[in-house]
Amino acid sequence: MDVKYINPFINSVVTTMEMMVNTSPKRLAPFLKDNNIARGDVSGIIGFASQEIVGSVALTFPEKTVKKIYSVMMGEETNGTNEDIQDTVGELANIIAGGAKEEFSSMGITYHISIPTVVVGKNHSIVHKGGTHVMVVPFKLENNAFFMEISIKLKNNWKKNNR
Q: Is residue 150 part of a domain?
């Protein structure tokens, strides 16, 4: 997985968090995921595909982190992972996938994004399509962690590897 295809998503995460919660997240060392278990309690997942590329991106937040983000964005506290929290996570995933799409366009790669899926629960699974490695990029937002998972495959490589 070439870093030039990961960076648009990282850049979009940073820009989105700066815009939505007025804080710049710190990116920590990325690593390859070795199972399907999410590192958070609420995840927003979006698939993307075109003639050139296929993949998915997931943002996964511990409950404490997403409640803090929601509080800053909406100016109010919330209890648990209610519908408002789920909508917030889905919308953040959508904004981040859309922001990355703009950077990909400048590389000559276009794609369509799916409607976000939000999954809630401790130790829930996230299964990425495409049969490729999943890169996890951890972030710190003040004292709160969250994670981006990304799976990307160029379709010309995908066709060669999936015959």
A: yes
Neighbours of 49 (CB within 10 A): 16
Kindly list the averaged pLDDT for each block of 10 residues, start to end, along the chain of length 163.
Answer: 87 95 94 93 94 92 93 86 90 95 90 94 88 92 94 68 40
Structure tokens given for 135: 């890169």
- Which residues are CB-neighbours of 106 under 8 A, at least 6 positions away? none
Three-state SS at 46 = strand
Range of the structural domain that residue 106 is part of: 3-158
Our count of domains for the chain comes to: 1
Q: What is the pLDDT of residue 17?
A: 95
Q: Is residue 45 part of a domain?
A: yes
In a domain, 135, yes or no: yes
Task: Retrieve residue 98's tokens.
Answer: 């859309």
